[in-house]
Amino acid sequence: MNKVKLGIIGFGAQGGAYAGFIAEGRVKNMEIGAICDIDPAKKEEAAEKYPDTPFYEDYIEMMESGAVDAVVTTVPHYLHPEMGIEALKRDIHPLVEKPAGVYTKQVKELNHYAAEKPNLTYAIVFNQRTNELYRKVKSIIDNDEIGDIRRTNWIITTWWRPQGYYDQSEWRATWEGEGGGVLVNQAPHQLDLLQWIAGMPESVYSKVKYGYQRDIAVEDEVTTLLDYGNGATGVFVTCTHDIIGTDRLEILGDKGKIVVDDSKTLTVKRLKKPEPEMNKSMNMEDVAKIFMGESTEDIYETEVEEFESVWGGQHVAVLENFAANILDGVPLIAPGSDGIQGVALANAIHLSSWLGKEVELPVDEEQYLAELNERIAEEKQ
Amino acid sequence: MNKVKLGIIGFGAQGGAYAGFIAEGRVKNMEIGAICDIDPAKKEEAAEKYPDTPFYEDYIEMMESGAVDAVVTTVPHYLHPEMGIEALKRDIHPLVEKPAGVYTKQVKELNHYAAEKPNLTYAIVFNQRTNELYRKVKSIIDNDEIGDIRRTNWIITTWWRPQGYYDQSEWRATWEGEGGGVLVNQAPHQLDLLQWIAGMPESVYSKVKYGYQRDIAVEDEVTTLLDYGNGATGVFVTCTHDIIGTDRLEILGDKGKIVVDDSKTLTVKRLKKPEPEMNKSMNMEDVAKIFMGESTEDIYETEVEEFESVWGGQHVAVLENFAANILDGVPLIAPGSDGIQGVALANAIHLSSWLGKEVELPVDEEQYLAELNERIAEEKQ
Asked: Gfo/Idh/MocA-like oxidoreductase N-terminal domain: which residues (chains A, B) (predicted)?
């Protein structure tokens, strides 16, 4: 086997894009093994575009057909864990879409199955982890270049969605269909990047707006205060109603500061001496100089780097890395088991807003599920 | 009377600077009437620099001497209200330093006295209100140019102070001496600007760090989530341990967005149509274009303006405006009664962190005072 035969479950926008990337030869170690969708219209579309590719309406049948070595789950969020589990049971490598699931209880079950099949490749589509900019940010933190983190702050409101987006399907932006709004659908990328780079908080307090600027049941705006438990704090803001869109990540460490603007411009300021040392040695005259706006070059060095990202390139990289792990054991960019972190964060943010108080992580899974089910029951009325 | 005779209470760094501005003729409608300080060393200093100016050790005596028409209170925060009241009682115009006081109960008393003497000029040194940049931001909001506010976000961590600053005096950074840290000493400027521009929140939740990076009893870091009660939210972050210092204010409205960087660069993005209209009329294709980074000029116009501020100029402007109100009834930039807002905000932020929950404004004054007194008692042990 020199190419992984991928089964694409769900032939919608995302699954269709993946099929395209592979068919165009952009994923050099992968081929389309089969396509699966429950929608008859998709069957016709697949037959037209990929006449030689087997099509299934039942994903279990596809998994058992021998046509695929691996699957990707471009289906509603709730289904990712169960499809992942069914794949693992049949020794099929699962690549799950983000988020790994809607609530940690189901994702934990998937992780549990995966842990019992360590020879299989279990990955998640956190394509942003392939972004060179964020890889560099992570390496700066991991290499202790800006020291211990004191504060993180991400305003990520570039996820503008009009009402028409939400009205596309009945299941969109409902508790039953998606299990949440911006936290579950758009922001999982940043929730993952944030925890990947800066670690998981120990507790969160959130103010979440449900149907604030859109006629939806779920959240279209989130403001969260993170407490990392070691003194460090953070702020995470996201929404789908800001058409001007801000994307600004700031991380303060005791040896420097990172600012990322628009996921394009990386500014790193490295202190000449750690802040605790400056704190001990500097006097009020030095403070006055800073206050009067005198040169800062004695204090820190500034490095600015611009990055470009090609649309689709990240997803191609994830698919290729997934196949490379299956074929050659190349380390995964995003192991599937990492997916639970973003889900745990989203669950905690929801729960904090529902309870109106700070919650510790991990949250009580049963409590979260009970609260979620209450909302599902309410929206049916 | 064509010049107001100012009595300077407290001849420290601030009071000394004011005396300098007036002596240099920078405040054209003001002269130094008298100087007051309880410190004998200051008496000598004043005698040397201003030999012809009467000096008092007792501010009441100065007020009753006939040498001053007005006073400014450059003294520890706790004393501002009582000195303001004593001035009003004697028909002396009070200009109080910020913050107006440490807790709202005492500031309310001052406001009450002032309300009974409407013919006197009662002002507060919110010098940042004279900053042309923030005046423009306020006018943009007041003129509804960016519509209804949906979110505010201010990271203002340019207040770096080393341990040596806190160790200057026994009273610094203690509950008894100052009644707080960065919220009471450095950030009152921004707390006032924020409420002046965007209004007061209805409730706050905060995470406040006491003695986090400095050996002090009071707070050196604050993260606050604001709820304006009408759907709008906000975030306010400040600290004294970030030597690189961020100063970034963002205000999102339903017709545009304002971003202020470093209190110098104002970026205003004005939507061609209000966001609610775009929400109704735009489809997924339009969203895709935005997502792919296509031109935004159909969506909004961007205006960038740079501002410069001269150090000291703001304080001169406040002094001059105060005198102009006394002499000619020119409207005040910062009426004294406005001072209570920033104090109310700071009190609420403290109280939320002490109680570990969201608190509504105005907070229970007695509860705040009891909690504050508990901390004063604790630090004495």
From this structure: 5-120
